[in-house]
Write a structure and sequence with these properties.
five-stranded antiparallel β-sheet, 12 helices, 12 strands
Length: 337
């Protein structure tokens, strides 16, 4: 591990000023991902800006019914929060599926969003990786890529984003509040992470020195139900081979609103806008659900060893939406007219 400076920020302004003024600076919250990457030699920060003691851990309900979650709130506290469990079960389920209790007690909201890919080529400094060292190539493309992306990948990178929480936030239409040298701004959760394109080293739309200050969940719609489904190699904690977060509202037996996001398939949580458009106003029959999901996943470009992900994700999504349709009070019909 290389030497680095350490600054415990007294307030948000100091944290941003130190980070923006020091190339190679990194924010330190729970450190569950960053410290591991430092040990591996993947990250070599010049300075760690400790934000763990800033007053960013509140969970507050707005008069509108929205819920604002501070960026240093621990994952375990979010998963156990009564309002999250009652109104946004998809988020609680995603957090509980994402890591052990020990890690959830340390990991923060902001850190969960900013965790980096678990691609073995990225984590091994002896292997080529455009995300870790631009211009060196993507070792996974012709190497081991069973766990890698089938949607939105590029010639430069086929890595997937590992966060379960981020998938749920994308489906919930959450907003992410940011603060930097230019002041505060808000970005939709579904647009916070980037597809790799020619710049896979840029995971998010964060500007230099910007910090995640909070996540805002909109008030749930009337009768909304939600669910998180995840497939992994083992029953204990493991990263998703494919996952899905779904939110559904019905009106008179038809879909009033549906939001669907996939995890484990792309460089970012994949919002299934094509499927959502097809389901709007439709009866949630098994045939309609499967056709909508099929249309979404038609854009998949599987590689040599990960084509199984397409069928796996489709089955997860149809199962989740079928379950939610039943919970919303209108069980899917067993046959189409």
């Amino acid at each position: 591990m290389k030497p680095f400076d350490y600054v415990r920020a007294a307030d948000l302004a100091e944290a941003v000023a130190v980070h923006a003024g020091r190339p190679g600076a990194r924010y330190l919250g729970g450190g569950t991902n960053l410290v591991d990457l430092m040990k591996l030699g993947v990250e070599s920060p010049t300075v760690l800006v400790d934000i763990s003691r800033l007053p960013l851990a509140a969970v507050e309900e707005a008069p509108s019914g929205a819920l604002r979650i501070g960026s240093t709130t621990r994952n375990s506290d979010i998963a156990a929060h009564p309002l999250v469990r009652a109104r946004y079960p998809v988020l609680a389920q995603a957090l509980l599926a994402g890591a052990s209790g020990q890690l959830r007690n340390v990991a923060t909201t902001g850190g969960n969003l900013l965790q980096r890919t678990r691609c073995s080529y990225f984590q091994d400094v002896s292997k080529p990786c455009n995300k870790r060292e631009p211009g060196t190539g993507c070792g996974a493309r012709d190497g081991l890529h069973r766990d890698h992306a089938v949607l939105g990948h590029s010639q430069e990178c086929i890595a997937t984003h590992p966060s379960d929480m981020a998938v749920a936030l994308a489906a919930l239409d959450a907003d992410i509040e940011l603060y930097g040298t230019d002041g505060a701004r808000t970005v939709p959760a579904a647009a916070f992470h980037r597809l790799p394109g020619e710049r896979p080293e840029q995971d998010t739309v964060l500007r230099d020195g910007e910090i995640v200050t909070a996540v805002v969940l909109p008030a749930p719609g009337s009768g909304a139900v939600s669910l998180y489904r995840k497939a992994r190699d083992r029953a204990s904690y493991a990263f998703a081979l494919a996952s899905v977060a779904a939110v559904l509202e019905l009106d008179g037996g038809r879909v009033r609103r549906v939001s669907l996001a996939f995890g484990g398939l792309a460089h970012r949580p994949w919002r299934a806008t094509a499927a959502e458009a097809l389901l709007a106003g439709a009866e949630p029959t098994p045939a309609a659900l499967r056709e909508a999901v099929r249309a979404e996943l038609a854009a998949a470009r599987p590689l040599r060893d990960n084509g199984y992900k397409v069928a796996l994700a489709a089955n997860l999504a149809v199962d989740a939406l079928t379950t939610l349709a039943g919970r919303a009070g209108t069980p899917p019909r067993t046959r189409t007219p």
